[in-house]
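FORM 7B: Structural annotation worksheet

SECTION A. Query
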Amino acid sequence: MSIDVEVPALGESITEGTLAQWLKKPGEAVAADEAIASLETDKVSVEVPSPVAGVLTEQLAREGDTVAVGAVIARIGEGAAAAAPAQAAADATTNPAGAGETPALRGDDHAPDAVPAPTAAEDDDHVTTLSPAVRRAVLELHVDPTRIKGTGKDGRLTKDDVIAAAEAQKSGAAAPAPEAKTSAPATSAPAPRPKAPAVDGERKEERVKMSRLRQTIARRLKEAQNTAAMLTTFNDVDMTAVIEARARYKDLFEKKHGIRLGFMGFFVKACALAAKDVPAVNASIEGDEIIYRDYLDVSIAVSAPKGLVVPVVRNADRMSFAEIEKTIADFGKRAKEGTLGIDEMQGGTFTISNGGVFGSLLSTPIINPPQSAVLGMHRIEERPVVKDGQIVARPMMYLALSYDHRLVDGREAVTFLVRVKEAIEDPTRLLIDL
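SECTION B. Predicted structure
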C-alpha cells in the first residue's frame, strides 16, 4: 500500500513553493516524520516530512519544480515490499526522456562527449543524486559521474567534485590540436598580427536560477524604491558609555540570565524610547490612512545561508534587556538552521539592520514595506573627536535612518535619530525613560 506525500501548508497567503532538494531517494527507508524533501518559499525553507514509516517508492516532482500546497510530490510504500519498484521510479524521475539520452548543449554544432551509461547499481548510487547544477557540470565538462567519489551528504556528488575530476582529467597528457591547413597558396609573408594577451587559468561562467527567497527579496526591495519617497539621514554616536557598561556588567548579566549582553539590546531599547517621541517612525500608510501604534514590533535583519531574513521581536518596547538578547540569539541560531517559521517574520513595524558585523562603515538601508523607517547600524572604530575643547579618540559608530518621506518629515526623522544617539551615549536615559 502506498501513501501520498503532500506539500504541507506553508503559511498565510503562501500557496506554492519550489522543491529545492530531495533528501531521500527512491528505494531508501524513511521513518515517520523524517524529512524527505526541502521546499523553498518566499520567506523560508520548509522540510516535507514522511507521514508514515516505509520506503520512498516514487518522486513525482523534480528539484526546481514549483509545487502547490496540497500537491502530491512523492509516495511512501509501507514495509519492505515497497522497495521493488524503487528502481523504476528512480529511472522515471531522473531520466524521463529515456535511459542513456544526453541532451545537446545549446548553441553548439557538435554534441558533447556522451556520459557513459551507468549500470543499475551505479545508477542508484550516482545518477539519482545528481542535482540540476551537478548534471549540467557533468555534461559541460565531459566527465563520467560513475567514476567520481561524492563528498556531499550521503555520498552525493557536488559541483566541486565534478570540477575537481575534470581538472584531474585535464592534467594527463593531451594531444595537441592539429593546425588548420590553408587552401590558398602563400604569395608573400603577411605582416605579423599582434597576439592577444594570454589569460592564465580558465575563465568560467555559471548560470544559476534565483531562489524563491532571493526573488522575493529583489521584488520587495524594488517595490520599496518604487512606492516610498525614501530619504536617509545620518548621525554618529559615541559608543564609550555602552562599551563601558557591557564591560562592567557582562559577567554578572550572563551569570544571571544565561545570555551575553550585546549592543542590539541597547539599540532596541533606544528605538523604543525614541518612537514614543516620534510615533510617525513606527507608523505605516494604508490607502489614504495612517496607522499609528502604541507597541513596537522590531524586525531584526539576520543573515542566513540563503539570504537575509527579518524575524520580528514583538512588543520590544515592553521587554527587558535579557528578553531582547535571548530572542535575538534564538532567531540568529534558527536562521542558520533554516528553522524559522513564516509567522515569525511577518508583522514588524520598524527594522534594525546591523551591517557593522560585516565591516560596513556607512550605508543607506532600504525600507521593509509596509514599514516607514529602518535604522542602519555600522562598525565601531576609533576616530578623533573634540570633547571639551580637546581632540580625543573615541569609539564611534555611524547611524543611518532611512524613512518614507510621505509620512515622516525631515524634522521628525532627525529628532528620532538624535533621541537614539542621546540614549546610547547616556544609557541612564533608558532606565528613567528620558
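SECTION C. Observations
The chain has three domains: 1-94, 103-167, 229-432. The first strand starts at residue 2 and ends at 6.

SECTION D. Sign-off
Analyst initials: ____
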